[in-house]
Design a protein that fits this description.
By secondary structure, the protein is an all-alpha fold. It contains 11 helices and no strands.
């Protein structure tokens, strides 16, 4: 076929019909997804009211709303942090008590003040307690309720069958029209496909896009992952074996498992006793902790006991005092030596200055030479 860039009559004759048919079958628009979601919401509301409306009327209503939708900017909602609210726990506990134990409603405030900081754990425990009781009671009453619910279930099944038949007819019509085209968005002229099929198509498109991005960003990584079943990979490219999971950003291509937040229970009496012993300076295993022992322990820590029988640290305290006295004596001797050396140096420096002054002031004495003098002449 000739290229798409030419404007010859051959291009128009050969490709105009193919282009028109493809665009009429696929009918991809920028607001197609929003129109589909809006139509599905309207159909679900009508289905709940046991009324159906023609697809043309829905399309007409959607066409009236499209200009406003196109001009609106995409709204982005900021995700709020998931924090547990104590008021939510109180409402949950009150609703459970109203249903199963109304006599405990006046004590809800006291219960929340007792377990302050552990409201989530308290609500979870209350729910577990009364749901188990409710399950036991519902098992005995299920036999009597089966006869009353059968008629309602039959009516719902009939409605579901009618809906499935209508959707099946729409899917068959789409399969007949769309034989060789990828159905990214459903055609509007023949109604809408089921929600599950549409979700499958969206999931397929996102997976293909993710795989293409992986091939573009790190092809060697993908080669190792494709040969993982044949060759042993020492680095580990999938799951928790990947060494990139421990880095700052982690591995963007490995889906991180969401860690469940741990609900902390209030401390038990044994834990409180152990904490109080550790705060007083005793061991956890020391069970004989009284006010007398606490006073004795504080006196021992401050070294106020001198009696050898009562104080087990007597010898240690005595040795510390002796070493302290010895260190004071040695330090005093060293300071005295340093002071003596400094005084000697000062005296020597003063004498040296005096000698220099005297040497400058010594007078010269002339001695007359005698006859019997010996002259020492230098050697030639």
């Amino acid at each position: 076929l000739p290229s798409w860039g030419t404007d010859s009559s051959i291009d128009e004759l050969i490709k105009s019909r193919a282009i028109v048919q493809a665009l009429s079958a696929i009918n991809v628009k920028s607001h197609e997804k929003r129109a589909y979601e809006r139509a599905r919401r309207k159909q679900s509301r009508l289905r709940l009211r046991k009324r159906r409306q023609a697809v043309d009327d829905l399309d007409r209503d959607d066409n009236d709303e499209f200009p406003s939708v196109q001009n609106e900017p995409p709204a982005t909602k900021k995700r709020q942090p998931e924090l547990f609210d104590s008021n939510c726990a109180e409402r949950k506990i009150r609703s459970i008590y109203e249903k199963f134990a109304p006599e405990k409603l006046p004590h809800v405030k006291d219960l929340l003040t007792k377990y302050r900081g552990y409201e989530e754990w308290l609500a979870m425990k209350v729910e577990e307690k009364y749901t188990q009781v409710n399950d036991g009671l519902s098992g005995s009453c299920s036999c009597s309720d089966e006869s009353t619910t059968t008629d309602e279930d039959d009516e719902e099944e009939d409605d579901d069958d009618l809906i499935e038949e209508s959707e099946r007819a729409i899917l068959l019509e789409e399969d007949r029209i769309l034989e060789d085209y990828d159905r990214i968005y459903p055609p509007r002229d023949n109604g809408c496909i089921s929600r599950s099929r549409y979700k499958e198509m969206e999931r397929y498109v996102t997976e293909m896009d993710e795989e293409r991005q992986r091939r573009l960003t790190c092809p060697l990584h993908e080669m190792r992952s494709n040969n993982n079943g044949q060759v042993e990979n020492e680095f580990g490219v999938r799951g928790n074996l990947n060494r990139g999971d421990g880095w700052i950003g982690g591995n963007i291509h490995v889906r991180q498992h969401k860690q469940e937040t741990k609900v902390f229970a209030p401390p038990t009496k044994q834990q409180i006793e152990f904490a109080s012993r550790l705060c007083l300076g005793f061991s956890v295993e020391d069970t004989e902790v009284t006010t007398r022992s606490v006073k004795r322990k504080s006196r021992l820590l401050h070294h106020n006991l001198i009696d050898e029988e009562d104080n087990p640290f007597y010898h240690l305290i005595d040795r510390v005092r002796q070493t302290r006295e010895i260190s004071k004596q040695t330090r005093g001797r060293a300071e005295r030596r340093l002071s003596c050396r400094s005084s000697i140096k000062e005296a020597a420096s003063s004498l040296r200055h005096q000698n220099l002054d005297l040497a400058l002031e010594v007078p010269t004495v002339k001695i007359k030479a005698r006859r019997n003098t010996v002259a020492f002449l230098p050697k030639r």
